[in-house]
Input
Amino acid sequence: MIELIGVSKHFGNHQALKEIDLFVPSGQKLVIIGPSGSGKSTLIRCINMLEKPSAGRVIVDGIEVTAPRAPIAKVRQQVAMVFQSFNLYPHKTVLENVTLAPIVVSGVSREEATESGLAYLERVGLSSQAEKYPAQLSGGQQQRVAIARALNMHPKIMLFDEPTSALDPEMIQEVLEVIIGLAHGGITMVVVTHEMGFAKEAADRVVFMDDGLILEDGTPEHFFENPQHERTKLFLSKILR
Output
């Protein structure tokens, strides 16, 4: 479903990604872990070309998005992304936020978008908040609206870039529970997170990055119980105290 071949990314003199090779099969739940500045967010943003790689190839659902004149807009309709910040339209209701993209981008009828939007709001536990505005919701609720909005595009792939990092600690679990619920479905997911409990519970596979490189790649059991790289062991010794 996702393939990165020799992907590098430079920001001036800084190399954020160093010839990354990564293959994510359809339906896999991949969690990317690593210290700040390791290249995690840059990698996930290269998948849907929010960052254009300096070198290498990115293939998403059989389409090479790094090729000249690639149909990036079309691919992005199949690749939903949930960011650290919620990016909701403050002047639109919850339901309007969830239905806007299907209507405007995909040409779905308002009735169909509303029906599926309400279903996804129900799925994230917010159907009763449909007519409220974002400012009337907690941070955790706003992030759950952002997830429902992403789902209402019916994507094949969902990308999460540290979806709980902007939340107060008591709100983190409610968002993680929604993402865990999604992980039990068949959608392909790539999640950048510092939440080790989520990685243990929901991931099929964990990748550890540092300094623009993938240093460890394996099952959650391998990652947490038998890491091979010394940098991984050092990271886990600090974060799992």
Observations:
- The two ends are 35 Å apart (CA to CA).
- The chain has a mean pLDDT of 91.
- Strands lie at 2-11, 14-24, 29-33, 55-60, 63-64, 79-82, 157-161, 188-192, 205-210, 213-218.
- Residues 169-183 form the longest helix (15 residues).
